[in-house]
Amino acid sequence: MKYGRIAGWGKCVPQKIVTNRDLEQTVDTSDEWIVTRTGIRERRIAGEGETTASMSVAAARQALDRAGIQAFDLDLILVATSSPDYLLPPVSSMIQDQLGAQCGAFTLVAGCTGFVYGLATAQQFIAGGAYKNILVIGAEVISRNIDWTDRNTCVLFGDGAGAVVVQASESPTGVLSFVLGSDGSGAEHLIVPGGGVVMPMSQRVVDERAHYIRMNGREVFKFATRVMGKAAVEAIEKSGLTLADIDLVIPHQANERIIELAARQLGLPLDKFFINIDRYGNTSAASIPIALVEAIEQGRCTENSTLVLVGFGAGLTWAAAVVKMGVLEQPRFAMWRTIPGRAKTRARLAMGALSMRAGAFLLPFYTRVTRR
Ligand code: COA
In the chain, how many domains are there? Predict the structure, then answer.
């Protein structure tokens, strides 16, 4: 089984909405500027107690339910993030524990590109035959790394999490091809300078606000428009398909103008691109999985759809993958999904108890019958 079907998907975004109008109250900006330059109207910001782990777990539970598997069926958990709960331990292990999974887990850092890197990695474990069920998560609470007095960055980002279950399959679905890229010579254009090994956390770091994201927006913009279309074309060529075979492009949601330019470069109409940046802003590694989940929910991505996922981000990095969706709905799990989490646990326990009672009740008959 060399293919990795996307068997389950889920997302979690914080309740709290921060609109452009809200930001007008705190920094020198305007709704008009933000909308025309980026396409963003509002973003979700994590409240107290909401963390990268907690949102990942919520998104992952949905994905597991959709796939019709339990956490203990997982063989590997892979979490793409640049805003883990702690520097140590890895947030992937916290998520593994909170889900009740018994498998390996690791965190992958590739900026906003991380989820596509993660999906390509999961595909390799499945193609090699090592694993059957892999959970891939893209999650961020990037708002805690933002300088809310810096209008160049604070208007752009938002928080959230998206997750998929990649499951071994015989039919040619999942990641058909991928392209991964990195150009570290552009590292300084998107960087958190303080709090790492080069500039450990200190009063100076705090005074210089060096523990927050610093970005050269124009350079990142130029880089993004250079790599997006190119990476998508390379991935499509590698898959043996053509542009005409692509039903939907799910781009990293960083700036609507970047997406429009990529559409022009590819010669595709904009309605072939899924865009939800207006409601979430740039959720970094979570942006592509959240968009994928919403594309499915809105019927833009359907059974057997062929997608291109394409992203770019800090590093600088970029990645694209051609993904074929397989069967989307497992009818026998459809009703089960409508039951809320706690009720589901009770139902599982009740079913367990019932089958034990039934077993105890039937055992004497069984022994009598088999003795004859
Ligand atoms: N509100 C109002 N004005 C703002 C502003 C804000 N939030 N942010 C910047 N400006 C100002 C600038 O200070 C500049 O003023 P000046 O001309 O007096 O110096 C002016 O707007 C134009 O700035 P510029 O950088 O040329 O704008 P832009 O059209 O390039 O848009 C970005 C800025 C950040 C939206 C755009 O460069 C971008 O999206 N870059 C990519 C960022 C990205 O994707 N990062 C994440 C990668 S994963």
Answer: 2
Indicate if 301 belongs to the active site: no
Specify whether 282 is catalytic. yes
309-to-235, 249, 279 alpha-carbon distances in Å: 9, 6, 19
Residues 6+ apart with CB under 8 A from 85: 51, 52, 53, 91, 94
255 is catalytic: no
Q: Does 308 lie in the same domain as 352?
A: no
For ligand 1, pick from 221, 228, 287 the residue to mutate: most ligand atoms within 8 Å of CB.
Answer: 221
**Residues 45 and 78 grouped into a single domain:** yes
pLDDT confidence of residue 331:
46
Do 363 and 290 fall into the same domain? Answer: no
**Ligand 1 shell residues, CB under 6 Å:** 29, 33-34, 37-38, 112, 151-152, 155, 190, 215, 217-218, 220-221, 224, 254-255, 282, 313
Res. 98: pLDDT tops 70: yes
Closest Cα to atom 34 of ligand 1: 217
Q: Which two tokens stand for residue 238?
A: 């590698």
Peptide bond before residue 316 is cis, with ω within 30 degrees of 0: yes
For residues 283 and 356, membership in a common domain is answered with no
CA distance 279 to 229: 24
Instruction: Answer yes or no: do 220 and 310 share one domain.
Output: yes
pLDDT of residue 2: 86
Residues 263 and 186 both lie in one domain = yes
Give the range of the structural domain holding residue 362, as residue numbers without chain letter. Answer: 339-371
Q: How many CA atoms lie within 13 A of 303 on its CB side?
A: 4
Q: Which atom of ligand 1 is nearest to the CA of 23?
A: 7
* Residue range 101-147, pLDDT digits in tens: 999 999 999 999 999 999 999 999 999 999 999 999 999 999 999 99
pLDDT digits (tens, 9 = 90+) for 189-218: 999 999 999 999 999 999 999 999 999 999
Å from CA of 308 to ligand 1 middle: 27
Q: Same domain for 216 and 360?
A: no
Which among 37, 38, 318 is the best mutation to test ligand 1's pocket, defined by most ligand atoms within 8 Å of the CB?
A: 37
Question: Can you give the pLDDT at residue 327?
Answer: 81
Residues 6+ apart with CB under 8 A from 353: none
Residues 35 and 66 in one domain: yes
